[in-house]
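Inverse folding, one chain.
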């Protein structure tokens, strides 16, 4: 079987050195087989190992190959649909539980980094930047909403104040979340995989799950081996393919694009983002950016529905970067890449169980860095028989895309066009 390398990206080029892990050969037995070595799978495995389970992780390519190793690297709290939307959908009792969990993922990341000494350029502070007065009003209500659920590390910023943290003329104000922040996402995943191995867990790379034999004692088959387990956690997200058909019908892989500049040097980097916070704007089709440890600007945005790779990523994203920072017009782009995330129709994550022993979490809808770390803890709790928090997610309503993925793509693209137009017109 051909080895699948990391796609070219700034993260792959600057990853901490780790030897490749072996592919699974032959048969192994374990308590839990985790399919996918992205954040959901790694977080689940780590929590399970800390609670005494024997865990085997199967990864089709390399650790952090998918969205976990290619995203914007931003620690952003809550979900892709905020707690007020959840409250209207499921009522106050369930929303209370989900609201309490909305800020836990970032704490879990910081705990992991500290406990296992993970070198991933962790920095505190994330900015939501408002381009219109309407967006600023939304941030004011979002602050009240988040504070209602106990989240207090927030500061509203007027136009003068936001200029102190980001040198961009577009913004009328914003909100600073000091429990937000940013990381080198691939190095976080690699550090979590090393932590799994330090606790006696096993991670196999180049070992795609090709078939699940369901039943009382499920078996996961790979091209050259199989894993007999008591439980399975399916954590493939946008890279799961059709391994579990009933999950594929309810979700759609989408691509997002990211570019990274050449090193800007200390002085220019400090002029752009003096406190080294990360930033995302409040548009529906949002732009997001931050500095790396070696003072490059990582800038992302845009969505390609159906997860096709666009021909020229730099041509899509560079104009967005220059709109925010015209002072970078002569700066060279060293890296450009795309990665897939999994979109659900409700924009809320899908969590559940198939039969008695196959658990899953998927569909972060572009809000995955913090949510996946929480999901790992919630899945591990469910396997230990503590299902209250798992059930709060599992009870969220979910819908198949109209016409399946084939027709879902144009529907979603049409919706994005509509919201993009609203962004442009300032609605």
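Residues assigned per position:
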């Amino acid at each position: 079987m051909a080895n699948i390398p990391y796609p070219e990206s700034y993260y792959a080029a600057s990853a901490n050195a780790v030897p490749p892990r072996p592919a699974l050969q032959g048969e192994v037995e374990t308590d839990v087989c985790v399919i996918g070595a992205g954040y959901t799978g790694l977080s689940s495995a780590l929590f399970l190992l800390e609670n005494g389970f024997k865990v085997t992780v199967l990864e089709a390519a390399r650790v952090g190959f998918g969205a976990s190793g290619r995203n914007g690297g931003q620690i952003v709290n809550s979900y892709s649909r905020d707690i007020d939307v959840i409250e209207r959908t499921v009522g106050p009792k369930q929303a209370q539980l989900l609201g309490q969990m909305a800020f836990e993922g970032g704490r879990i990341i910081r705990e992991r980094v500290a406990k296992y000494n993970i070198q991933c350029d962790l920095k505190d502070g994330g900015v939501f930047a408002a381009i219109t007065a309407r967006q600023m009003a939304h941030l004011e209500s979002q602050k009240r909403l988040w504070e209602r659920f106990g989240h207090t590390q927030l500061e509203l910023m007027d136009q003068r104040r936001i200029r102190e943290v980001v040198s961009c003329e577009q913004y009328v104000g914003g909100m600073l979340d000091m429990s937000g922040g940013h990381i080198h996402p691939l190095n976080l995943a690699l550090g979590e995989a090393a932590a799994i191995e330090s606790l006696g867990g096993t991670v196999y790379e180049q070992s795609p799950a090709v078939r699940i034999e369901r039943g009382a004692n499920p078996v996961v088959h790979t091209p050259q081996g199989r894993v007999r387990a008591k439980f399975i956690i399916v954590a493939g997200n946008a890279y799961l393919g059709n391994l579990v058909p009933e999950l594929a019908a309810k979700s759609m892989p989408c691509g997002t694009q990211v570019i990274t500049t050449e090193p800007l040097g200390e002085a220019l980097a400090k002029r752009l983002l003096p406190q080294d916070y990360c930033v995302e704007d409040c548009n529906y089709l949002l732009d997001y950016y931050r500095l790396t440890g070696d003072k490059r600007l990582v800038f992302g945005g845009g969505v390609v529905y159906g997860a096709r790779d666009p021909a020229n990523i730099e041509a899509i994203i560079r104009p967005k970067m220059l709109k925010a920072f015209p002072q970078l017009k002569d700066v060279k782009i060293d890296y450009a890449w795309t990665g897939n995330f999994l979109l659900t129709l409700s924009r809320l994550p899908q969590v559940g169980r198939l039969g008695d022993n196959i658990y899953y979490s998927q569909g972060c809808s572009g809000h995955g860095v913090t949510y996946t770390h929480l999901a790992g803890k919630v899945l591990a709790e469910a396997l230990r028989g503590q299902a209250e928090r798992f059930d709060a997610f599992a009870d969220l309503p979910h819908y198949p895309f109209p016409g399946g993925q084939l027709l879902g793509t144009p529907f979603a693209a049409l919706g994005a066009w509509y919201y993009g137009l609203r962004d442009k017109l300032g609605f």
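The chain has two domains: 10-70+186-250+346-415, 122-183+252-344. The CA atoms of residues 131 and 171 lie 5 Å apart.
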